[in-house]
Specification:
It is a single chain. The chain is of the alpha/beta class. The chain has 2 domains: about 120 residues; about 240 residues, Spore Coat Polysaccharide Biosynthesis Protein SpsA, Chain A. It contains 14 helices and 11 strands. It has a 9-stranded mixed sheet, sandwiched between helices. A two-stranded antiparallel ribbon has the order 9-10. The protein is globular.
């Protein structure tokens, strides 16, 4: 019996391992192309209480070469100096514009609300949505436009280099790559426009403006807390192509500054991702069975037959090998590879906690806001603050 359980754990470990290794050949860096004229890009940054991040985020966008860029920042009712910092930047550089966000309508998510308002004021044909904690290299924007042109995609995104500090960050954040590349068959995604293959990363998106509005943009996902999945989905529902690129060399991000914020940050939208009722049971079986199960079997080795021990050891070695390959490719700390089974266990726990909160009708909490199940309202007008109007 235990031998069969160990064999099952090896099979469950092998599935994401094979998918990830194949995907690493397909998940390639974005590169710039030569154009007769400089690409024009609108960089759109939603910001709520981002005084520690916003200056560097804007500066990194403005430093980009080979493109004509405008940077729009929406101050989403911040309670800190976010707006004042952007206002000062706008006075010094006419490429920067501050938008004062309107109040959040009932049922709408703050980020989707902000991104919709930003897109309405963008003037360039390419839209880049980036979080305030993302830092671009000076060739990132040209590379993103080049990827769209090469791939033929209407929307694309990639995972920036992930900076981590606390134990919670080191446990959970590197699993973004593992989950995305270990369970999404990119070869199928690129051949199909079916919404089932919708995938993305909310930290960094690039889109063609005309296709963005054709798909409905963020207005179509007003109440969503998971734009990484839902924005590509609405593009695909509109018959448009979405794609993924490796952003490791183009951008970096530190998502959360502590273990507690990391847990809360992943918890806020887990019930719209892996924690969805229809998905959580099979994903729990895959993740725990293949990534944690082998280690539990090895702990019970004194009571197991030799064949079971050998199978469990092979599965455990496979999980570490794949994580080490990913760590080297994405510049993660190799010492954290040993945290992999604990990280998977924590990730699964977050999904179940999110589902439990949903079943108990407890609202998701983030940045001083509660998100329940109210239907999203239509957006009211937004006011524009140009540099000449700021004070």
């Amino acid at each position: 019996m235990m031998t069969w359980i160990a064999l099952a754990s090896l099979i469950l470990a092998a599935v994401p391992a094979v998918v990830l290794l194949v995907n690493l050949r397909l998940y390639r860096p974005a590169k710039a192309q030569r154009y007769g004229r400089r690409p024009r890009v609108s960089v759109l940054i939603p910001a709520r209480n981002e005084q520690h991040n916003i200056r560097t985020a804007v500066a990194s966008a403005l430093a980009n070469k080979g493109v004509d860029v405008e940077v729009l920042v929406l101050d989403d009712q911040s309670e800190d100096d976010t707006a004042a910092i952007v206002r000062a930047l706008a006075r010094r550089d006419p490429r920067v514009t501050l938008l004062r966000g309107s109040p959040l309508p009932p049922g709408a998510n703050g980020k989707q609300h902000a991104c919709h308002q930003l897109a309405r004021h963008a003037i360039h044909p390419h839209l880049v949505f980036m979080d305030a904690d993302v830092r671009l290299t000076n060739r990132a924007l040209a590379s993103l436009v080049g990827f769209l042109d090469r791939s033929g995609a209407s929307l694309a995104s990639g995972i920036p280099l992930q900076r981590t500090g606390s134990l919670g960050e080191r446990l959970i954040v590197p699993l973004i790559h593992f989950v995305l590349l270990g369970f999404l068959p990119m070869w199928r995604m690129r051949r199909s426009r079916h919404p089932a293959y919708a995938a993305g990363v909310g930290q960094l998106f690039v889109a063609r403006r005309e296709d963005y509005w054709r798909a409905g943009g963020h207005e179509a996902i007003l109440s969503s807390r998971h734009d990484g999945l839902d924005l590509p989905r609405v593009f695909r529902e509109a018959g448009l192509h979405t794609d993924l690129f490796d952003a490791t060399e183009l951008a970096e991000c530190r998502m959360y500054p502590s273990s507690a914020e990391t847990w809360q940050g992943f918890l806020k939208n887990a019930d719209e991702g892996l924690g969805r009722p229809a998905l959580i049971v099979p994903m729990t079986a895959l993740l725990l069975g293949g990534q944690v199960g082998p280690w539990l079997l090895l702990l019970a080795a004194p009571w197991l037959p030799g064949a079971a021990i050998a199978l469990a050891a092979a599965a455990a070695l496979l999980t570490l090998t794949v994580r080490r390959v990913a760590a080297r490719r994405f510049h993660q700390q190799t010492r954290d590879v040993w945290l992999h089974p604990l990280g998977i266990f924590a990730l699964v726990a977050i999904q179940w906690q999110a589902l439990g909160r949903r079943l108990l009708r407890k609202p998701a909490e983030w940045k001083g806001r509660s998100y329940g199940s109210e239907p999203a309202a239509v957006f009211p007008p937004v006011s524009l603050q140009s540099p000449s109007r700021t004070s």
